[in-house]
Amino acid sequence: MSKLKRKEYEAELVLLQVELNAMARWLQHTGKRLVVLFEGRDTAGKGGAIHAIANCLNPRQCHVVALAKPSERESGQWYFQRYVPHLPAAGEVALFDRSWYNRAGVEKVMGFAKPAQVEAFLKQAPVFERQLVDDGVLLFKYWLSVDQTEQEKRFAERQVDPLKRWKLSPIDVQAREKYAEYGRAREAMFKATHHRYSPWYVVDFNDQKVGRLNLLRHLLDHLPEQAVPETRDELPPLTTKPGKERYAGPVKPIQGKY
Hints:
Elements: H1 6-30, E1 33-40, H2 46-54, E2 62-65, H3 72-75, E3 93-97, H4 106-109, H5 115-134, E4 137-145, H6 148-160, H7 170-175, H8 179-193, E5 200-204, H9 208-221
Parallel strand pairs: 1-3, 1-4, 2-3, 4-5
Helix pairs in contact: 1-9, 2-9
């Protein structure tokens, strides 16, 4: 698929976001719970894909989960324990910007987890996910795919852009030389954790706009029928003259520059 022009992308995105809002109403109506995992290499575009969903939904219903490295106490817990409190309640959506699969990816490749820990994780993850699915959770696992040439281009953009520089960490710099190792770790992860009840889906994110649209279309198409009547609150005309903000106390509005 050729690159989309910005106006074409935005027009398609709006249509999908309308469907996402219908999905959110369906979740509330049925009490279903939705968990979406976003995994992939650094710079793949996880944050942008998550933003495309979360930006159009009620933040009280849709939660973005992006956990920092485990604390000392968390390191002494059952591995999945710190993720459980972030799972959705009835009618909610949880979007994981990286997830428990850190153990099979960055922790394995960068040596933060011992081989025995990784092996145990790969055995336990399908069991954990089977419990979620059996309890009614709708679980989607996406791997955002990006080639190394494109990844290097995005790293360079982060280095020079002051608004994106925070995304470039020392770990990212070290991981650049381990592209092949990450690929092997991903394949081992897929082999152990790709199951009928919790499959992996790979989305090409070399073009992030196209990738976002394809991911959203896939997610919406693979959810159950979502037809729920939309209700709109009536907005009658005001019965009094519109008021203006007035300040009688010591607090005054700032004198803006613009």
